[in-house]
Predict the 3D structure of the following.
Amino acid sequence: MIKLFTFLILFLTQAVSARVNCNENYSDCFKNIPSKIIESYSEKEYQGKNLVNLKLRSMPIVSTEKNVMAVINKNSDLKIVSFFKLKDTDELSLPIKRWYLVEHNNQLGFVAAKFVNKIIEYEILRFRSDDSKNWLDDRNSNHVYIDIKLQREKGEQIWKVILYYYDPAVGYKEIQYEGLKYDSKLINISNQDNFIIEFLTEDKLFLFSNVKIFKGVYNKY
């Protein structure tokens, strides 16, 4: 605790360069942040834009200007690398606790997360049942249509699975759940119907399900 307090005093008062190095003043650091002020951390792979002119800092502490590396103009393109949630200590109250580690113009530094909009990119895969017809080509016929849509944010592990079913005799049915991929299988983690997707190839899968209308082979389209 004394070492952390000493570090913070040194950091806030010494005339140091903008590229402040945490390890020069404190032995336990992570990504140039004192470990004891980190509440949570996660890797990210997003693009973003800043809503205002924003200071790029070598450390995520705003009580000094000595760690400011650059000023990023409004609406600049940012590569979001990591997200940090910080916490107060007995020695320090942090006015801003949520930060992104970003890359901008070949510089890596911290910006306040509340001033950045994430540009979310999605990976989407679509598969159609062997027992189904292409609705766009054959929409006026009396056929059954069974499709699967797999969607996730790029960089994330969780897939959103949407099952579509249309039968002229019984109408439309849609089921959504979340899945996590293990090897060649996408396991349902939403605690509902027993859906397991097994990828037979890159373009073909088999859906195991206790909902019989969805069970079977699907091909990518």
Summary: Helices lie at 2-13. DSSP finds one helix and 17 strands in the chain.
